[in-house]
Amino acid sequence: MRPHQDSLFHIGHLAIQMDRSGALYLPQHKIMIVADLHFEKATTLHEKRGSALPPFDSRDTLIRLQNIIKKYQPDQFICLGDTWHDSRGPSRMQREDRDILRNIITNCQTNFIIGNHDESILEVDGLSFYSEIIIDGVVFRHEPVENENLPQICGHLHPVAKVKLKGRVIRRRCFYLSKMQCVLPAMGALSGGLNCLDSIYKGFMSTEDRRVVILGRDRLYNLGVKSLLAD
């Protein structure tokens, strides 16, 4: 698959392609990367708060994962943490959903980064979890390190951009990029988001070449941070 030029960026020597699903693809290595799947969030909320949300968020997320993998056919798949919403999530997952996930990881080498939501999940059905993975000098981890000179790609913060477009305000998931960093949007169906103007990003995002890439229904939209609105 030939990447569209607008979807490409570089961190160090690593060429990276953005997909409007919220995934990244490394064409040189045939690696696909997603963040914050938060499987079984609906059942977590039901267990803790009695929420009446229908328990189909895992299925929706898994179907989107299947579609992305079919599109790019990667050799390797990396999830940047918070694969499950809590430590009991794997046991609550419906059998059909476990089968879909097992099919994905059986047909593609899969590496899971430990996130704050699933840090107590050390092993699931023989799967291994890592604190970070380094590819061509770029660190892939869940939570960003507060060092703006460190080339890093992470999740955890669920970035969203709020903008005014044609007279109406929209708030959508996005990639948040700088010369040295990229924060992925959450892939999970029920995941919320943290505005890119929040002060927490200042601790690690370099100011050079900062921009957001908003996930549209059929394309990506590149915007500078000056175009953004606070919540």
Describe the structure.
The chain is 18% helix and 30% strand. With 231 residues, the protein is of the alpha/beta class. The protein has one domain: Purple Acid Phosphatase, chain A, domain 2 (4-Layer Sandwich), CATH 3.60.21. The strands form two sheets. Strands 8, 9, 10, 11, 12, 13, 14, 15 and 16 form a nine-stranded mixed sheet that branches. It has a seven-stranded mixed sheet with strand order 1-2-3-4-5-6-7, with helices on one face. Residues 1-5 have low confidence and may be disordered.
CATH architecture: 4-Layer Sandwich
Helix content: 10-25%
* Structure summary, number of beta strands: 16
Which radius of gyration do the C-alpha atoms yield?
17 Å
Q: Which residues form runs of ≥5 with pLDDT under 50?
A: 1-5
Characteristics of this structure?
alpha/beta; disordered N terminus; Purple Acid Phosphatase, chain A, domain 2; nine-stranded mixed beta sheet; globular; 231 residues; 16 strands
Q: Concise description?
A:
By secondary structure, the chain is an alpha/beta fold. It contains 4 helices and 16 strands. The radius of gyration is 17 Å and the shape is globular.
List the helices and strands and how they pair.
Layout: E1 8-11, E2 14-18, E3 24-26, E4 31-34, H1 41-49, H2 57-72, E5 76-79, H3 89-92, H4 95-107, E6 109-113, E7 129-130, E8 132-135, E9 138-141, E10 152-154, E11 159-165, E12 168-177, E13 181-183, E14 194-195, E15 211-215, E16 220-224
Parallel strand pairs: 4-5, 5-6, 6-7, 9-10, 10-13, 11-14
Antiparallel strand pairs: 1-2, 2-3, 3-4, 8-9, 11-12, 12-13, 12-15, 15-16
Helix pairs in contact: 2-4
